[in-house]
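fyi for ur records
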Amino acid sequence: MAPRTNPSSAPQHRDSTQPPTAGLDREPDEEACRQVLQILGLIGSKWSILIIGQLRDGTLRFGELHRSVNGISQRMLTLTLRQLERDGLLTRTVHPSVPPRVDYTLSELGATLLDSVVALGEWATTHRHEINDNRNRYDATHPTQAPS
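which gave:
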């Protein structure tokens, strides 16, 4: 991508590891943007947020997680746990027993997300009635149209 000649022509994005003036003369790196969007897609999913929130108090087994995350299927829980483990946000420990016992715990990296996840949950709880009222008002003035 070609460097931008006018740095004030668009919002600036900067890598927090770079000094504040680094990269002001060029477009954001497309690969970095793609990676960030992919990560936000994972951690922004309702299942990931709920699982991370459930692990805030410590280690849970698969069955405990399944019971505590309302509405999640075993398959979706398995897939989400696998992705969170792959990204290093939680650790999976298999204990050699019959049947095998598997524990899940937030990693150090996963724990860094906890404040944000809890804050997001608190915000949603605080504003849920206001949002529901807004939805009801909108739906009353914008009736859905049947597909043609």
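The longest strand covers residues 90-95. thats all i got for now
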